[in-house]
Structures are given as structure tokens and as C-alpha cells.
Specification:
270 residues; alpha/beta; eight-stranded parallel beta barrel; two-stranded antiparallel sheet; 43% helix; globular
Length: 270
């Protein structure tokens, strides 16, 4: 297992500085969303090969692997112009991700929080976009990783299995598993059963797990928490991890530097 972090949780910094910080903080890996992480890059459209080479060299020198090139796009949007731009950007990032040596290019399937009706409305557009991007992943032999989120069109286990079946390409289509993004009603959910059902069904497709914790305040307002101090229960995830014989990445999201050491210890126990 490799332990990492979403790099821009340390703020937007220059390439050399961020790589050195992650090394000093004792991470093995980082998820990089280049325009969010690096001062040198304003948007995906302005990435150059010079950027890629500089990042690759700095992170290699600091012994930080790059399991995820983050490019989260609005793939299910019913507006064809928005969807076209999302697909085009994600296809280009497959190329940059491969050049960088990232394991996968990762994305969710929407931007907004959708109600159940909206998720169903956006679902066919999401499905079409994923298959279009997957064609490019197959062409250049790069992995696309999609992330289920309960308020997005890739909303549940049934829909995820449907996408997997339609794609029929476990080499190029992979999954990022973020349990916290699938927990709609923590107060009445048996998390051991839920995570076991997910991982028993799609675990072979999972290369990366996002690890975070949260509480729900007044009006069910989401509040990030240090690992182990919120509503998340990771026992079933830990049990599954201990059975795996392949390399997997645990990446901390919503990291607060004040609690980084404790969070690292929590993830290592997983």
C-alpha cells in the first residue's frame, strides 16, 4: 500500500516547492490536479510538455508517485457544449497523464449536487461521455478512472456496474473508491454492509481509495473532520485492503495540515 494526499490541499505552490513539501511530510504519493496544485499552470489548456517534464523530474527526485492525474469534468451535463468541452479536456489530459507517468486520469461525472430526478436525467449523457473518453484511453493505452458519488449521475453500485458492463474493458476503465462520497444517510446506514457490498462487487476495478471523514452539522451541513473523528467507519474497507495482494493507493482528501501526522497514522493502520 502507498499512502498519499490530494496535493492542492497544501495550497497552490510552485512545482519544486510542492514536491519537496510532500516528501518532507512523509507521503509516498500525490493526486495532482495541475491547475489547482501549481502556480505555473492556470488551466488545463495551458499545460505544456515543459510543465510535464518539470513535474515528473521534481516528483521523481522527491520520491513521490503520481497515482492520479486529476481532471474532474462535468461529463453528464445535458448542455452539449459543456459536455463537449469536458470530453475534449479529459481526452487531452489522458495524453498528459500518460506523459507524466500517472497511473490513471481520474474524474467524477458531474459538478453540481443533483437530486434523484436530475441524476437519472444526466445518466445517459454521462454514459455517452465516459464511453467517448474511453475510446481515447484505449487508443493511447492510458487508464481512465471514474469516481462514483451519490449526488452525481454515477450515483450508486447498480449504475457503476452498468458502466463497467457497457465499457467491458477492465484494463482501461478503472475506479476511484471514495466511501464518504457514497454515504448519503450516515445516521441510518450499516457501513460495514455497504462497503462490503461495493468492494465485493467492484473491488477488482479499484486502484485508488480516497480517505476522508466528516460530520453533519446544523441543516446537515458537511464539515470535514480528522480521520476517525467523524461519521465514517472504515472497518470493512480495512478488512478488504488486508486481503489485497496488489499495489493500491490510499489518498487523503480534505487534509488539514494541523492533523496530517495523525491522519497518516490512521491510514497506515488501515
Amino acid at each position: 500500500m502507498k499512502i498519499g494526499v490530494r496535493a492542492h490541499d497544501y495550497g497552490k505552490r510552485n512545482i519544486e516547492e510542492l514536491a519537496a513539501i510532500l516528501h518532507d511530510e512523509d507521503y509516498n504519493a500525490a493526486q495532482l490536479a495541475l491547475p489547482k496544485a501549481f502556480i505555473e499552470i492556470d488551466q488545463y489548456e495551458t499545460i505544456t510538455m515543459e510543465h510535464i517534464e518539470k513535474i515528473r523530474e521534481a516528483f521523481s527526485r522527491n520520491m513521490i508517485e503520481i497515482p492520479v492525474f486529476g481532471c474532474y469534468m462535468d461529463l453528464g451535463n445535458p448542455d452539449p457544449s459543456v459536455r463537449k468541452q469536458a470530453v475534449t479536456t479529459l481526452k487531452q489530459c489522458l495524453f498528459w497523464g500518460k506523459e507524466l507517468g500517472a497511473a490513471v486520469v481520474g474524474t467524477e461525472t458531474a459538478y453540481p449536487h443533483l437530486d434523484p430526478e436530475g441524476r437519472q436525467k444526466w445518466k445517459p449523457y454521462m454514459m455517452d461521455s465516459v464511453l467517448r473518453v474511453l475510446e481515447e484511453a484505449q487508443r493511447i493505452d492510458m487508464k481512465l478512472a471514474i469516481e462514483p458519488v451519490y449526488w452525481h449521475p454515477l450515483t450508486d453500485l447498480e449504475t457503476t456496474l452498468e458502466v463497467i458492463k457497457k465499457a467491458d474493458d477492465p484494463h482501461h476503465l478503472r475506479l476511484i473508491f471514495d466511501a464518504s462520497n457514497l454515504l448519503e444517510f450516515p445516521e441510518k446506514t450499516n457501513q460495514n454492509q455497504l462497503w462490503s457490498a461495493w468492494l465485493d462487487s467492484i473491488g477488482d476495478y479499484v486502484d485508488v481509495l480516497h480517505i476522508k471523514d466528516f460530520s453533519l452539522g446544523r441543516n446537515r451541513l458537511y464539515q470535514p473532520e480528522p480521520l476517525g473523528q467523524g461519521v465514517m467507519r472504515y472497518e470493512a474497507v480495512s478488512k478488504w485492503l488486508r486481503k489485497q495482494e496488489r499495489e493500491l493507493y490510499l489518498l487523503r482528501e480534505e487534509m488539514n495540515p494541523l492533523f496530517a501526522k495523525d491522519d497518516l497514522a490512521f491510514m497506515r493502520k488501515l
